# Entry
Amino acid sequence: MTNLIDTVAEVDEARAADVVIGKGRIIFRRFMRNKTAVTGLAIFLGLFAFSLFGGFLTTWDKETIDPLNIGMGPSPEHLLGTSQAGIDLLALVVEGTRVSIFIGLIVGGLSVLISAVYGCSMAFFGGKVDSVMLFILEALIMMPAILVVAVATSGGGQSLKELPSWLLLIAVLLFFSWMGTARLVRSLAMSLMQRDYVKAAKYMGVPSMRIVRRHLVPNIGSLLVLDFTRGITGAILAEVAFSYIGIGIKLPDVSLGVLIGGATWQVSSFPWMFWVPLTVMFLLTGSLAMMNDGLRDAFDPTSTSIGRAKTKKKSK
# Structure
């Protein structure tokens, strides 16, 4: 309730100063007042920058072997140590972080787009179209994801084996990641179909896909933004899990899951090889969780977890 009063105070202040504040700006202000969410954003941006420019911190790459430092701990020459094969761990972690973030962004973004279009289309057309699309959706949800991943990345035929393992994993994760959100979007969009502006657009002969794109999708934007951050987290965790058990990304491709899985059975002998990528994974998923909580509170005007807005004192 306090946060709702603060938001109203901001709007009243803007009206008094003849300034129009858009909804996006209000949400941005509320998000930036959440210290936890801002901290999560800073950590994520730092890891993203590390994945892009971390290679400049070392003169070694993920393919070069140092025969004089095989399985060695952190040193001035190798800041994070080396693997059992003599490869610089910092170079491997940079590559693994980049691959994991890339998978998360691609799967999270495309799954939101697919679920929004599919769910809104079901609600808009209704009738038999909705029944058929809902039947297809329910059938896909029943498919075992882990079995499909194993077949696609291990025994999918010669043509699939020639593709990079990370590309196959993206395709499989994207195939399964949009279904739950699409069903939720359908229920929300069906309530929007009863609004007067949607009925007026249909009566005026506005094309169906334009109504879906301009009237339905924007009105469920908060759900889609939150699902985007959740989708990134889910894709990264799925990549780590599948690669850990050997059915995800495979060598010579590198990811956080590959590094964690490869060092699990040698934690006592090479602890740096296990704890460094595991720490990066925790920081990555933890920062996304903090950002998601901040976005949820920013979109919710009744939330009381963000604090009070600063108001200007009226000059006498």
Remarks:
- The domain at 2-299 is CATH 1.10.3720.10 (MetI-like fold).
- The chain is about 70% helix and 0% strand.
- The first helix runs from residue 2 to 16.
